[in-house]
């Protein structure tokens, strides 16, 4: 038991540091080639902080722990909206850009409903996984096409201390190092979590929805909280919305695509947890539209809803 607990903790540490190194390097690469802060938040930072979810879900799928794979994504999306946005809004009220309101948030809602419809038959098939993954590529292309900015304007902060090639090489090494930490971290984290869950008689679905989901979402917590504290509100909100979209399209899409028999989705998740995920996504629409800001009061309500959700899962 001590060994499993040690692996669980080491895996979590590797996931956090791996994601941090990956995001830091990838963000600087994105800025060097001329992407705006919002686009960086929606793509590179969001996808980077979601890489633990991807690595954990793939490892869980390959190990036959399908409830952890699906629960991880569903729980992470609920956690991202209710806990992370709520916490970030408590730090500082979050101003919402028109682009998020008109394009990205509606896409997050539509995708949440689409995943629920895909899973109604009890699994996400290879075809459905392929559709989700192709949709991710299209989404990334649209974001980059719309958000490309003048390189000289965006790369001024990174032009000192070396050529663009050296900056790309240096940060590329950080990205690779981060990925290595994520691979090993996910392996130890999932193995430890599942062993501990079975020891205490907790179902793998609940573990995936809570401990694993929270653990793999810690990079998002850190990134959004620090971004909000520093006034980088586009990155704080874009990170959450982008992470949720990547979880639905990239993580579920890839795990479904790689599973020959399709990724099994637990009936409890279909009847309760995915609807909660849809509710959390829908909750963003009135909050984002009302004054185009998430106030501290609204942030507190979101945190309270997440606490109620966790209490329900436990009891």
Automatic annotation (TrEMBL):
UniProt-recorded Gene Ontology molecular function terms: calcium channel activity; calcium, potassium:sodium antiporter activity
Residue span, Sodium/calcium exchanger membrane region domain: 5-144, 173-314
Keyword entries, A-Z: Membrane, Transmembrane, Transmembrane helix
Origin superkingdom: Bacteria
Pfam families: Na_Ca_ex (PF01699)
Localization in the cell: Membrane
GO cellular component, one term: plasma membrane
GO biological process: intracellular calcium ion homeostasis
InterPro entries according to UniProt: K/Na/Ca-exchanger, NaCa_Exmemb, NCX_ion-bd_dom_sf
Name of protein: Sodium:calcium antiporter
Organism from which the protein derives: Rhodohalobacter barkolensis
């Amino acid at each position: 038991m001590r060994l499993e607990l040690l692996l669980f903790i080491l895996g979590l540490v590797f996931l956090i540091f791996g994601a941090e190194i990956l995001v830091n390097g990838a963000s600087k690469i994105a800025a060097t080639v001329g992407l705006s802060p919002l686009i960086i938040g929606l793509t590179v930072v969001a996808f980077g902080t979601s890489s633990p979810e991807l690595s954990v879900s793939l490892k869980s799928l390959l190990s036959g722990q399908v409830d952890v794979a699906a629960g991880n994504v569903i729980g992470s999306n609920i956690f991202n909206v209710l806990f992370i946005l709520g916490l970030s809004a408590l730090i500082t009220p979050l101003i919402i850009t028109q682009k998020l309101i008109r394009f990205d948030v509606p896409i997050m809602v539509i995708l949440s409903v689409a995943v629920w419809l895909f899973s109604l038959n009890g699994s996400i098939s290879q075809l459905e996984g392929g559709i989700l993954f192709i949709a991710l590529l299209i989404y990334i292309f649209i974001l980059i096409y719309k958000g490309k900015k003048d390189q000289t304007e965006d790369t001024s902060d990174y032009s000192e201390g070396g050529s663009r090639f050296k900056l790309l090489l240096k940060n590329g090494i950080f990205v690779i190092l981060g990925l290595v930490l994520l691979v090993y971290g996910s392996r130890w984290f999932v193995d430890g979590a599942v062993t501990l869950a079975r020891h205490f008689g907790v179902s793998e679905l609940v573990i995936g929805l809570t401990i694993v989901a929270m653990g793999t979402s810690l990079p998002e917590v850190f990134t959004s909280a620090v971004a909000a504290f520093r006034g980088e509100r586009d990155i704080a909100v874009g990170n959450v919305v982008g992470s949720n979209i990547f979880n639905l399209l990239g993580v579920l899409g890839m795990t479904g695509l790689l599973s020959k028999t399709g990724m099994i989705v637990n009936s409890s998740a279909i009847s309760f947890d995915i609807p909660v995920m849809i509710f959390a996504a829908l909750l963003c629409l009135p909050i984002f539209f009302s004054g185009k800001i998430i106030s501290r009061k609204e942030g507190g309500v979101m945190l309270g809803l997440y606490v109620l959700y966790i209490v329900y899962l436990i009891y």
